[in-house]
Amino acid sequence: METKRIILSLYVVFTSALWVNAQESTHWQCDIYKYQYDMTVYFKLQQGEEAITNLSDYEVAAFVGDECRGISEIQTVKTTDNTTAQYGYLRVRSNLTEGETVDFKAYQSSTGKLLLVEETISFKNLDMIGKPSAPFTLTLFNVIKGDVNNDGFINANDIVDIINYIMGKSPKKFYKEAADMNDDNVVNIADIIMIANNILAAN
């Protein structure tokens, strides 16, 4: 009986480790056991107006704030004309049944670049956004240091957004990676000073 108990314990640990590894990458990690609820997103990628066909070069993760809530898998399927197509599959997790705003980030393996995503979604337990035959579009863009609201300009509006972020308010669009000017993973007055100096130097 004791031997059976040990074998069963090892089996649970082993299978759990396999599933956790499926939710890890060299960039992000998601502890799926921290959350009670989940929803599903089927997605495709584009950059600007150009569709991305090689999804295998990208890894997409879902975030609420700085917390990773899920890491994508890429599925390849045969189409009716006997060719293949790809779509992304992502389970997003939460401890609230609905209401949290979910952001996305992408990592491109071939270039080693972190890319941000324009779209956000609102979490709702058991919801499904997109489907394999009609995936939800996620639009990628490069991180531009200082342009924290991704409006194409670096100006006083970006400084105001950082101040609001530091004060605990929620700017309508805010990309921490663009605000973190010195890449210390903290957004603070030092980043504001760097942006202000860059604006002054450009004028």
Quick summary of this structure?
This protein has helices at residues 2-22, 156-166, 176-179, 189-202, and strands at 37-47, 50-51, 58-64, 67-71, 73-78, 84-94, 98-108, 113-117, 121-124, 128-129, 136-142.
Describe the structure.
- By secondary structure, this protein is of the alpha+beta class.
- Helix content is 25%, strand content 35%.
- The protein has helices at residues 2-22, 156-166, 176-179, 189-202, and strands at residues 37-47, 50-51, 58-64, 67-71, 73-78, 84-94, 98-108, 113-117, 121-124, 128-129, 136-142.
- Strands 1, 2, 3, 4, 5, 6, 7, 8, 9, 10 and 11 form an eleven-stranded mixed β-sheet that branches.
- A hairpin with a 2-residue loop joins strand 1 (37-47) and strand 2.
- Helix 2 runs antiparallel to helix 4 (189-202).
- The longest helix has 21 residues, at 2-22.
- The radius of gyration is 20 Å and the shape is globular.
Key features?
single chain, about 200 residues, alpha+beta, eleven-stranded mixed sheet, disordered N terminus
Q: Secondary structure elements and their pairing?
A:
Blueprint: H1 2-22, E1 37-47, E2 50-51, E3 58-64, E4 67-71, E5 73-78, E6 84-94, E7 98-108, E8 113-117, E9 121-124, E10 128-129, E11 136-142, H2 156-166, H3 176-179, H4 189-202
Parallel strand pairs: 1-10, 1-11
Antiparallel strand pairs: 1-2, 1-6, 3-4, 3-7, 5-6, 7-8, 7-9, 8-11
Compressed to H and E, one letter per element, the order equals HEEEEEEEEEEEHHH
Supply the helix-strand structural class. alpha+beta
- Tell me roughly what share of residues is in helical segments: 10-25%
Helical stretch count?
4
Largest sheet: 11 strands, mixed
Give a count of the beta strands, DSSP E runs of length 2 or more: 11
Question: What is the mean pLDDT?
Answer: 86
Given the C-alpha coordinates, what overall shape results?
globular
From the alpha carbons, calculate the radius of gyration and give it in angstroms. 20 Å
Report strand %.
25-35%
